[in-house]
Amino acid sequence: MRVVLFSTKPYDRQSFLEANSSHGHVLTFLESRLGADTSGLAAGFLAVCPFVNDHVDAPVIQALARQGTKLVALRSAGFNHVDLQAAHDAGMTVVRVPAYSPYSVAEHTVALILALNRKTYRAYARVRDGNFALEGLLGFDLHGRTVGVIGTGRIGTALVRIMRGFGCRVLAMDIVENPDCKAAGAVYASLPDLFRESDIVTLHCPLTPETHHLISRDALNRMKRGVMLINTSRGGLVDTRAVIAGLKSGAIGYVGLDVYEEEGDLFFQDLSAQVMQDDVFARLLTFPNVLVTGHQAFFTAEAVRNIAETTLRNISAFERGEPAVNEVVLSHVR
Ligand code: NAD
Question: Apex CA 49: angle with CA 46 and CA 52, to 5°?
């Protein structure tokens, strides 16, 4: 099948070309993001493969459908950027990669927790500058602390296992309780209880209309003073302006982000020679107790390989007319 991949980088090309040796699709790699102004580039392609910050809204889907596209093969787990109703109405199938390595994101979450706690990102810079003073680097034992995990699917549960290994108490919140998460040692709690008791709050639920700005000013007011907030899920879960206010007042002690609500214009590109236009993001970067990574939590060799293999398998199954196992259907958001 002829497949066009949007928002690609050299590492996408490498992983997809390797995985494609057993599928034989005709792959076209584009650097452009998919959106209203670029949808014309997909003319003549039965399958379109977007990434997390591409716009797959109703006008784009209708434009793709008019050009003959039948399949949107997401190379991500999250599908919050796709208008599923529009895809349904256009008779277009949407598939995704539901699981490629929950460990990649769970382990990056732990990397953020440890770095913020022990301030290794600051120590690295100090030591290279010949400054071996310890003032300002005081951390805390994770052992015995309470970690609140919101969203206990694949990634949340992988994280629970790791944090239990540190000797943490883990409180969990989800709209559906996961027996594996309980077996791993988490205790389910209500959101207000989780907020009140957790030293670390970490987000692992999808971005939906219900979870948009789940971390609001009100939510932050319910948390322990000095709480550590971690978001490796989707930027829209957090009201960034409320977080900045919480950092300024000292209500929040640490913030670790791999995602940001306006990341589409920033992440996955080298902007180091440009003037930052996003004042909210720029303010965030001024805090010594904030650590931001650019949506790299998924980026391990295992995950990248699995993403390419599953995406191409999804496309092959569609081409053969088999039922799509990884189809995203409207009930996912209803
Ligand atoms: P999953 O589907 O296995 O788990 C998501 C969990 O969230 C489910 O248990 C679901 O019931 C729960 N949930 C849904 N709505 C909720 C709500 N309102 N309140 C609480 N819980 C709710 O997904 P996963 O593989 O664990 O991935 C979780 C999220 O991580 C994805 O949605 C994606 O946004 C994000 N992600 C980020 C990266 C990255 O690189 N930073 C990579 C992969 C996934």
Answer: 150
Residues 306, 249: one domain? no
What string of pLDDT tens digits covers the 334 residues of the chain? 999 999 999 999 999 999 999 999 999 999 999 999 999 999 999 999 999 999 999 999 999 999 999 999 999 999 999 999 999 999 999 999 999 999 999 999 999 999 999 999 999 999 999 999 999 999 999 999 999 999 999 999 999 999 999 999 999 999 999 999 999 999 999 999 999 999 999 999 999 999 999 999 999 999 999 999 999 999 999 999 999 999 999 999 999 999 999 999 999 999 999 999 999 999 999 999 999 999 999 999 999 999 999 999 999 999 999 987 899 988 765 4
Active-site residue 295, yes or no? yes
The answer on 146 and 67 residing in a single domain is: no
- Shared-domain flag, residues 233 and 112: yes
CB–CB of 27/5 below 8 Å?
yes
90 plus 134 within the same structural domain: no
Same structural domain, 246 and 313: no
CATH code, domain with 16 = 3.40.50.720
Q: Catalytic site residue 212?
A: no
Q: Cα–Cα distances in Å, from 61 out to 21, 81, 132, 134, 246?
A: 29, 12, 56, 55, 39
313 is a catalytic site residue = no
- Answer yes or no: pTM beyond 0.85: yes
Q: Are residues 54 and 113 in the same domain?
A: no
How far is ligand 1, taken at its centre, from the CA of residue 68, in Å?
A: 32
Task: Count CB atoms within 10 A of the CB of residue 179.
Answer: 8
The whole domain housing 328 covers 2-100+300-333
Q: 96 CB under 6 A from ligand 1?
A: no
Q: Is the distance from the beta carbon of residue 236 to the nearest atom of ligand 1 less than 6 Å? A: no
Nearest-CA residue for atom 15 of ligand 1: 205
295 lines ligand 1 (CB under 6 A): yes
Q: For residue 201, report the phi and psi dihedrals to the nearest 5 degrees.
A: -115, 125
Count the domains in the chain. 2
